[in-house]
Design goal:
It contains 13 helices and twelve strands. By secondary structure, it is of the alpha/beta class. The chain has two domains: about 150 residues, Aspartate Aminotransferase, domain 1; about 200 residues, 3-Layer(aba) Sandwich (Aspartate Aminotransferase, domain 2), CATH 3.40.640. The strands form three sheets. It has a seven-stranded mixed beta sheet with strand order 2-8-7-6-5-3-4, with helices on both faces. Strand 3, helix 5 and strand 4 form a beta-alpha-beta unit. Helix 2 runs antiparallel to helix 9 and helix 4 packs parallel to helix 5. The longest helix has 25 residues. It is globular, with a radius of gyration of 22 Å. The relative contact order is 0.16.
Length: about 400
């Protein structure tokens, strides 16, 4: 009996369509295999000088070198391994503030950043720092003139994400880097939703700090990296031993690092094909919904100013919680917004910033985000499932209004 139940559960899982890759991704088989090998054969402490320590250190540094090449870092030691995007963001924000507060206490960000940026900035405001939150338009884009006007002599940090995690807007990172090149401010970008999906060049874009998380690219959770340009010296955020050249204490997670590097290689070796797949899936979804007569609008647009893998859709008159639940019960896994705040009853701060708190979009929007495990064959079923539930829920809403 137990075997039958297990088989049924596996069949159900295989029938599900997972389109919440911005929330997290399934670990790739090659990543699991590489990490398993590292756990079995590379158990040494990379900070020791014994045989097994040297062996672990070699694996660590080989991974660091490869990851540096993926963003065109000039030196391997500019890559610091962390527990993920949240730690990387917090490290930059809090440690830049600590290290440079004598030079100024002004920081610039946007109103649509991830909570891993917004919450440490709120902490700094309680400590006397001043934060300017740049507004965005209905496409989730900042106005560069607003950034230029906000820059001051006492601005010590500008933290602006590369790709927004809820609507997929691609921020003008290259132009921001050029604007900041002659300023006193250091430039940090949260690239968690961009890494592996859009080109990143820390030299060309004049980026000082960049955050990456492995579980967004089919790697392990609780593993990430922080790019820190040489000369941008910060005190260690995690205090303890002298690991990572005294930049991040704690015995290095060698299997996790191997997982991150393997996942990155999986994406960068297939970069163009993956991006083409994501774009194809997104356009098929939109055309399918149009053909099915679904009443919807895209939050943003379909141009190259949006990341290829993410689309945010307003289903008019349909509460997002009801639609999300019904899709889930029918085997479609999507999201109403950021996975980090999905349990909150508050509306999306990103959609509020784009459309205002009174807009129905903030309560009637779902996010669909594609990954390398998705196929074009899934889209027809995805469209049919969405159309079925949108039509029924809109009809219920119409009856309620009467």
């Amino acid at each position: 009996m137990e075997t039958v139940i297990l088989t049924e559960e596996l069949d159900i899982m295989n029938e599900r369509i997972y389109v919440d890759n911005a929330g997290t991704t399934m670990m790739a088989p090659s990543v699991i295999q590489a990490m398993t090998h590292a756990m079995e054969d590379t158990f040494g402490n990379a900070s020791t000088t014994t045989f097994y320590g040297r062996q672990a250190k070699q694996v660590l540094e080989d991974s660091r070198h490869y990851l540096a090449t993926t963003i065109n870092a000039q030196f391997d030691d500019e890559i610091v391994f962390t527990s993920g995007g949240t730690e990387s963001d917090n490290t930059v924000i809090k440690q830049v503030a600590a290290a440079r507060q004598a030079e100024g206490k002004h920081i610039i960000t946007t109103a649509i950043e991830h909570e891993a940026v917004l919450r440490p900035l709120a902490d700094l405001e309680q400590q006397g720092f001043e934060v300017t939150y740049l507004p965005v338009d209905e496409n989730g884009q900042i106005n560069l003139n607003d950034l230029k006007a906000a820059l001051r002599d006492d601005t010590i940090l500008v933290s602006i994400m590369t790709v927004n995690n809820e609507v997929g807007s691609l921020l003008p990172i290259h132009e921001i880097g050029a604007m900041l090149a002659d300023s006193n401010a250091w430039f940090h970008t949260d690239a968690v939703q961009a890494y592996g999906a859009v080109p990143i060049d820390v030299q060309a874009d004049q980026i000082d700090f960049l955050s990456v998380s492995a579980h967004k690219i089919n790697g392990p959770k609780m593993m990430g990296m922080l790019y820190r340009r040489r000369g941008r010296n910060l005190p260690s955020f995690v205090r303890g031993g002298d690991q990572e050249l005294k930049r991040r204490a704690g015995t290095e997670n060698v299997p996790g690092v191997v997982g991150l590097a393997t996942a990155a290689k999986l994406h960068f070796d297939n970069f163009d094909a993956d991006v083409a797949l994501f774009q194809s899936l997104k356009h098929r979804l939109v055309k399918g919904l149009e053909a099915a007569g679904v009443d919807f609008e895209i939050n943003g647009h379909l141009t190259d100013q949006m990341a290829p893998q993410t689309i945010s859709i307003w289903f008019k008159g349909v509460p997002n919680d009801a639609l999300l639940t019904n899709l889930d019960l029918d085997g479609v896994i999507a999201a109403a917004g950021s996975a980090c705040t999905s349990g909150s009853l508050d509306p999306s701060h990103v959609l509020v910033a784009m459309f205002g708190e009174d807009s129905p979009r903030v309560w009637e929007t779902l996010r669909f985000s594609f990954g390398i495990t998705n196929t074009t064959g899934e889209i027809e079923h995805l469209v049919a499932t969405i159309a079925k539930h949108v039509a029924r829920l809109q009809h219920v809403g119409d009856r309620g209004q009467r």
